[in-house]
Amino acid sequence: MTTAAHSQAGAKGPVYKALEVLDALVRPDGPHRLADLAAYTGLPKPTVHRLLGTLADSGYAVALPGGRYRAGPRLLGLAATALADSPELRLARPVLADLRLRTGHVAHYSVRDADSAVHLAQSEAADTYRLAVRAGGTVPLHCSAAGLAILSALPEEEAAQILGTAALPARTPQTVTDPAAVLAELAAVRAQGYALDDECTEPDVRGVAAPVLGADGRPVGAVGIVGPTFTLDTESVALFGPMVRAAAGLISASSCGSSLLGLVRE
Asked: Which of its termini does the chain have fewer beta carbons within 10 Å around, N or C?
């Protein structure tokens, strides 16, 4: 679905348009067709085709048979270098590995990007079921555990501004779409120190997450676990929730005085 931000891409400059194409290029389920990339960015097909040609010539995209495209080696190299040098991920990775070992579930570290949470890193159990959690993947703030955790650590007025007043998109029948109801839910998240996504983002999947705070007390991200509902059941949530909260607290304490990524875009 084309977002409002993407639908305005035509009014932006060439650099912005190229970045929009790169953003579309690395979305899940690639390689992507030209038509799909144009639909996601809101740009005309000829513009996307021209930009892809330039990106391919410079190694940031690769053209495949059948008119499909995927990320190129230079783009992958930049991503790998950025992640390797990231201070927040150096702090988070050992904590995620420990959380995965203790819970048996996929553990992830996420940050806010506008009205979404972006998964920057994950530590995945060897025998886990395939779940839609991967580095670079995004989930909405209003219904994901990571997003709710981040929102809960913001001042209520700021969280309300992010959520807005219009009905929020539904990802599943369980998604809470009323902004006022989401705000009310954040009070419970603050009280227990962790958020729960009970099949609100993906059917048959639960998630638990807690906010990671910077030196100024503002959220710089969230630590969470994700699992199928038949393994991450109610009893498991009650057991693992405090573990997730403690893991987030450990990264928060370690991050004091350091410069974490935190927010990608307002």
From this structure: N
